[in-house]
Amino acid sequence: MASGQAEQTSAISIQNKTLRVLHVINGEHYSGAERVQDLLGLCLPKLGVEVGFACVKPGKFLEARQATECPVYDASMQSRLDMRAAWRLAQTIRAEQYELVHAHTPRSLMVGRLAAAFCGVPVVYHVHSPTSRDTTHSLRNWLNSATERFSLAGVSRLVCVSQSLLTHMRACGWREELLRVVPNGVPSGPELLPRNTPDRTWTLSMVALFRPRKGLEILLQAIAELRSQGYSVRLRAIGPFETPAYEASIQELVTKLKIAELIDWLGFTRDVNAELTQTDLFVLPSLFGEGLPMVVLEAMAAGVPVISTAVEGVPEALRDGLDGLLARPDDAPDLARAIRRIMDREVDWQTLRTSARTRQVAHFSDHSMASGVAQIYRELL
Length: 381
Fold this sequence. Notes:
Layout: H1 2-16, E1 19-25, H2 32-43, E2 49-55, H3 60-64, E3 72-74, H4 84-96, E4 100-103, H5 106-119, E5 123-127, H6 138-151, E6 157-160, H7 163-171, E7 179-181, E8 202-207, H8 216-228, E9 233-238, H9 244-257, E10 263-267, H10 272-276, E11 281-284, H11 294-301, E12 306-309, H12 314-317, E13 324-327, H13 332-343, H14 349-363, H15 366-380
Parallel strand pairs: 1-2, 1-4, 2-3, 4-5, 5-6, 6-7, 8-9, 8-11, 9-10, 11-12, 12-13
Helix pairs in contact: 4-5, 5-6, 8-9, 8-13, 11-14
C-alpha cells in the first residue's frame, strides 16, 4: 500500500512540475508551421510548460509572433552546414536549464539534435509536412529529406500533425513507438455570428506563402473559367510570394487570363481572422505537401466554408459535403465545379458554415493541440 501511494504521489508530482522546453525553429517566415509554434508558445505555459524559441534563420517570425512573453535566442546559421549554431544553442540550453529540445524543420532538427546531444537532453521532432515532397524542386527535397533522416537518429518522439503524416513516417521506416499524432489546432474565438448567404458576387480568399506547390495557378484558371460561364467572383489573395520570380510568373498568367480586375493582392497580414470576415468562400488549391493546413482550420473556426484539394491531411479535417468541399489536385475544372456547387445552392452555404465551426471547436482547437504536445513532454520527462 505504501509503495502504491508513493508511486501515485510521484505521478502527481511529475504532472504538476513546470517543464522548460526550447523550440528550435527556422523563423524566416510566418506561415502555417510558424503559426503552430506561436500558438504552442501561447498555450503551453497554461499547462505548466515554459517555452523558449531559438531561430536558425531569424526573420518574419520575430516581428509577427503573438507569444511575445517567450524568450527568443539567436542561433543563426550562416550556411546549411554552419554547426557553430549548435554550440551556441548548447550553451543556451545549459545556461537556461532547458530540459527538452523541440525541433520543427530539417535544418532546425540538425542543429537542435547536435546541441541536445552535447547537453544530454531528449529531442522531439514536429513533422509538419512530408519533407520528401515539400517543394517542386527535387534536389531540395532530397537534401532536406536526407538531412531529416540523418538528424532523426536518437530522437525520442516524432509528432505528426495528421494521420496521413504518421502513415508516411511509418512507411519511411520509423518505429511505431516513436510516432504520435497531435492534430494542428487554432483558437475558436467567439461564437459564430450570423451572416446572409451571398447573393451576387462571391468573394473568394486564399491565404498562403505563395509558392508553386500551393496551386495558385489552378485557382486563377478556375476563376477565369467561372467568369466565362457567367459567374461573378472576386479573389482576395493574402500572403507574400516566396520569390520575385514566382510572383512575376503569376502576374504573367493573370494578364494572359485577363482577370487582373478580379484580384486584390493584399500581401502579408498578421490578422487572418479579420480577412476571413470579408470572405464568402476560402479556397486552398494545394498540389501536395500539406500536413494539416492551419488556414483551413482558421477558416472553419470563422465559419467560412472551405473548398480545398484532397491532399494529405486535409480530408482528415474537412469532410466532403459536410464541412466543406474537396476537389482533385491540379484540376482547374474540378475546382471550378466545386465552387459552382455552392454558388448554385446545390450545397447549402449556411449548413457548411455551422458544421465546419462545430467540427473545429470539437477536434482542432489550440488547447487540444497544446494538451497533446504537453502530454508527450511528460511521457519523456
